[in-house]
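Backbone Fold Data
Goal — C-alpha cells
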Amino acid sequence: MIRHGLAAVLSGALATAAGGCRIFTDATPGFLVSPGALSFTARAGGAHPPLQFLSISQADEQPAHWTLVADVPWIGALSSGDTTPYFLGVGVGTELPVGTYSGTVAITRVSWRDVRTVPVTLALLATTPLDGRWAGLRDGVSVTLTLAASGGQVTGAGTLTPPRLSVTVVGAYAYPDVSLSLMAGGDTTTLSGVFVDDNAIAATLNGPQLANVALTIYRQ
C-alpha cells in the first residue's frame, strides 16, 4: 500500500513537471550588511576614534527587524536593534593596554533568523597615529590631507584652497608635533601643528598665498 501510494505521488509529480513545469524557488529576500569588516586605530587610553558605519538593508527594500550583539565589551553601537534600512554607527573604546584586539558584531534578521557577522579590529598605539584623512576649514581657507607616517617621516597628498591646488605632502612627526610641507609645482606651503586631542591638530599655514593662517584640522 505504501509503495503504491509513493508511486502515485511520483507519477503525479512527473506529470505536473511535463505539463506545467512547476518550479519551487527560495523566496527569502537577501539580507545585506556592509562593509564586511571594520578597522580602528587609536591611542591606548586616549580619545575614542570616530564612529564607523554599517549599512543594513533587505534586498526587496521591505522593512525587516534586526538585532545586534557584540562579543567583546570594547565594541559599542548606537542601536542594538531597529528595522531596515538602517545606517548604524559602531564605535570602540580605548581603555585597554597597547596592542591589537579583535571582536565581532553579529546582526540577526529576526524574521528569518539569519545572521551576518562583521569582524572588528582595534589597534591601540602608545602615541596618537597620524595616518589617515584630515580636513579643516576657516575663513575660506581649507585643507584636506591623506597622510601616512612611518619612522617619524610623513608622506601624503591632498588639496589646499585658495587657490585650489593639489599638493604633495612630506614632513616629520614626533608626537604631539607635526611639521609638513605642502608642495604644488614650485610653491611650498608649510603646516606646523600640535595635537590638541587624538582627533584634532591646531595648525598654522604659511606660504606664497597664505600667511599665519590658524585653523584646526580634524581626523575624518
